[in-house]
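Help! Submission page says 'invalid entity' but I think these are all valid:
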Amino acid sequence: MRTPRRNTVRRAGVGALLAAVALLTSAGAAVADDPSASASPAEGESAAPTEAGTTFRTATPVRQGQAATADASTGDYLYWAFPADSGQRPTVRAKVSLPESATRHGASTWQIDVYDGLRRRQACMYGHQTRKAAPDAGTVELSCVLRTVRAWSEPWASDPLPGTYYVRLTVVGLAEEDLGLPVHVETQVDPADQGGAHDVDGALAKPLVPGVSAVSAQGGAPAGSEPEDGWSSGWWTSRWLWTAGGGVLAALAGVFGYSLTRGGGRPSRVPPGV
Amino acid sequence: MIIRKRLTAGVCVLLATLAAGLGTALPAAADEPSTAASPKVELVLDVSGSMRTRDIDGESRISAAKQAFNDVLDAVPEEVELGIRTLGADYPGDDRKVGCKDTKQLYPVGPLDRTEAKTAVATLAPTGWTPIGPALLGAADDLEGGDSTRRIVLITDGEDTCGPLDPCEVARDIAARGIHLVIDTLGLVPNAKIRQQLTCIAEATGGTYTAVQHTDELSGRVKQLVDRAAEPVVTPVATEGAGSCSAAPELKAGLYTDRQEIGKHRWYRVDVLPGQELRASVSVAADRAVNNDYGVLLRAVTTHGREIVRGAESGTGRTDAVSTGLRYPKPEQDDTDSDVKPAAESVCLQLSNSFSAPPSVKTTPGMPVELTIDVVDAPDDAADVAAFGLGRGWWLLGLMVLTGLIAGLLFGWISRWRVAVWRTN
């Protein structure tokens, strides 16, 4: 049996290599295309999307914290995709602005579903995942708080893992006559960092991004498929601090305990003047 | 800037992969970007007699449609090849047989000459019948050829009364040709029957349905649909799963489509080397009226029939698709005398669904299946629950302090005792 620590060392080695290569190439690239650098941000990659996809395949990528909007018809299935990394607990919020109540014929029920990179449905811990809008309501607000994303889990578990997540928003119940009426939708994914409490051992070799094996062979990631500062290496966790801090405190306590057995000042049986 | 960062990241990943000597599986042809083929869109406009009705913002339906077309033609993205087809534009008579064949291509699918297209649209006058089915068939033929994404945008104000060709069945048959064609429908001032027919057409092809009450809604929506066609997407490769594992098609990493009938199994096969992880996800689309409770099951099975892992999902209520996925990391082989190349394991994937449909609903062609296969490096097994086996929290600190204190006291006492013994000697 291989020792896991050796694997960690190998992983760290690969990480270091990656970092070195990244440093070298980014330096080279920076020199190469400096003049165009000012033009690049204008491409609007950071601008919030104003459209939504209609299938998993066409899901519109959004970043966490971005407010994505879309105009759609009642009954459409709207899809967005966002990257979530280990240690995060994303909250998906959606606000649907309904058509004027004069044109509607009854109440409607709206729902958000969240799927992971393997298209497995992910549970919402809490939040209004499904909500009924009264016939005269102007908007309906939905939310879904996911479980904390873990760095690794067994293949038989459906724990949330780092990778792409899909949000699907749709109406699940409505008066037949209201199908096809225009709605306006706002969606936002808010990250919440959960700290070291959920840091588990192990890591995925690649995040759960669909098509990741094809992408790595082509040498480029599709837009919005990874977090702004890249996927975490899985090496850092605040548990290092806790454990090291515990070690220091234990050492101090040891010294203190030792000094207690020595007593304070001179030993009593040594005569004065020695 | 961001593009550069991404590129560098990509190059790094590639280099690192090579350097580490961990080759990834070659992607299937499915993954090559289809940037060369330009997306094709055909607008299908109803020019039947009823389009004369003046009930959209006080204008006639046809003039609203014409205005919307002008807006849309101005805004068509450069790369989109656009065509226009009409239905009911020519035959004003009462003969149903002739009237129901009345559909023709007004502007051929190809690079767009805006003025020419606009002139063609301006000549239209509401005339005849509403043969939606034949118009859809015609539009599908117009979009033939190439491997790009295709979209039909159908704008109508009346139901197809031409029978026996049910436009909904026509749409499903077109979708089953496997040419990635989506039909979006727009109903002008729809009633219950039109709505039902148009939602059925849209549902059958994975498209959308919109009810239009105002001119600006019409032009905005058509523009949005045309832009959607221009979005680059990965085109899936058609495959056909078999009834048993031994006959199953062998899939590489990539995106695939298939059709699955209600209650029938589909088998696929993927080769996985030791040290690789198989990731498979599948969506079965409900493209027809199905009963309210449904499910899908994807199992990874060895060639001997032992189940390795499964993904299952079930649901209830209105849905476009039900999907699930699984991953199977195959551990690296223990004996590392790597003279002999390790053999790949053939993993069988069994897909089954538990949809059911009312007896009136046709079950053939089967429901569209989308299958994503990825083969990546496998992760290492975790040796501990916590990261690197490290601890965390106040209990840990308390315990460590206590242990340290006790250890210090013990050492202190032992050394005092030894000094005392040494003195007495």
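Support: the input was valid. A stray whitespace character was the problem, and the output above is from the cleaned input. Chain B has nine helices and 18 strands.
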